[in-house]
Amino acid sequence: MKIDATHTRASFVLANTKPQSVQGLGDIVLLLTDELQPLWRATETELRQQGVEPPFWAFAWLGGQAVSRWVLDNPHVVAGRSVLDFACGCGMSGIVALRAGAGITVGVDVDEVACVAAALNSQRNNVTLQLVCEDVVGRCDLKWPGAGETVESLLRQDGEIRLPEVILAGDVCYDARLAARVLPWLQSMANLGVMVVLGDPGRKYLQTVHMQLLAEYRLHTTTEIEREAYMPAAVWRLLPESP
Ligand SMILES: C[S@@+](CC[C@H](N)C(=O)[O-])C[C@H]1O[C@@H](n2cnc3c(N)ncnc32)[C@H](O)[C@@H]1O
C-alpha cells in the first residue's frame, strides 16, 4: 500500500485504531490502539519504506494526558487564548484545550500521519484543531493565524510575527536529540512571554531547571508502551529566565 495522500493516511489510521475514551478526560473520544505490535509492524511494512515515523499518534502518552488533565482542571489558562499543541500526536491536548474554550488552536507535529490522526480526532470531538506538519523547533518568528484565518504554515515569509499565548507540550523528553532541541526552544518562548506548559512522566531527558511544578497525576496507560498500567506524570510551567 502506498501512503501518498491524506485519504490513504486516514484509512490507515481508521483501520488500525478504535475510538476510545481516556480516563480522566471526560467524554473526549480518540482513535487509539491498545496493541503496539500489529500497528508497529504495519507501519514498518507499509509506511517505513516511505520515511514515515513510528505510530506515536496511536497512543495517549502520559505527558500529553497530564497536560490535558491540567487544562481540564484550569480552563481559565486557555479560555479565549491562542494555543499551540506542540508535538500533538493524536491531538489530545489541543482538543481538550478547545473543549475548554481555547481560541485558535493549532496542533503541530512533524509526522504527517499524526496530523491526519489529530484531524480525524478533532472532527470526532466537534472542535476545530488546525494542523501544521512542520518542524518549528528553534523558530521564534511564528506567524500565528488571526481570527477566522486558517493556518497552512507557521513559517511563511509574509505577515507579522505572532506567537501563541499558550504552548502545551506533552511527552517531548523521551529522546536525547529531541529534548536537546525542544527544551531550549520552549524556554526561549517562555522568555518571550508565552505560557509554556510541559507534561512529562519523568522521561530520561527531562530537565526541570527554570520550571515550576504545577500538578502531579496518577494516570492510566497501556503496558504496551509503559512499564505499568498506572503511572505518575507531572505538569511543569517553564518560567521566564531573568535577562
Ligand atoms: C511521545 S509522542 C507525544 C504525543 C502527544 N503530545 C501525546 O502526549 O500523546 C511525541 C510526538 O512528538 C512528535 N515530534 C517529534 N519531533 C518533533 C518536532 N521536531 N516537532 C514537532 N513534533 C515532533 C512525534 O511525531 C510524536 O507525535
* Portion of residues within helices: 25-40%
Strand content: 15-25%
Strand order within the widest beta sheet: 5-4-3-6-7-9-8
Mean pLDDT over the full residue set: 92
The CATH architecture can be named as 3-Layer(aba) Sandwich
CATH superfamily: Vaccinia Virus protein VP39
Short description:
With 243 residues, the chain is α/β, with parallel strands linked by helices. The protein has helices at residues 6-16, 36-47, 62-73, 92-99, 112-124, 176-191, and strands spanning 18-21, 29-32, 83-86, 105-108, 130-132, 166-170, 195-200, 211-220, 230-238.
Describe this protein with a few key phrases.
single chain, 243 residues, alpha/beta, Rossmann fold, seven-stranded mixed beta sheet, two-stranded antiparallel sheet, binds S-adenosylmethionine
Overview of this structure, please?
With 243 residues, this protein is of the alpha/beta class. It has one domain (6-238): Vaccinia Virus protein VP39 (Rossmann fold). The chain is built from six helices and nine strands; from the N terminus they run αββααβαβαββαβββ. The protein has helices at 6-16, 36-47, 62-73, 92-99, 112-124, 176-191, and strands spanning 18-21, 29-32, 83-86, 105-108, 130-132, 166-170, 195-200, 211-220, 230-238. The strands form two sheets. Strands 5-4-3-6-7-9-8 form a seven-stranded mixed β-sheet, with helices on both faces. α5 links the parallel β4 and β5 (130-132). The radius of gyration is 17 Å and the shape is globular. The termini are far apart. The mean pLDDT is 92. S-adenosylmethionine binds at residues 53, 56-57, 60-61, 63-64, 87-90, 92, 108-111, 114, 135, 137, 170-172, 174, 178.
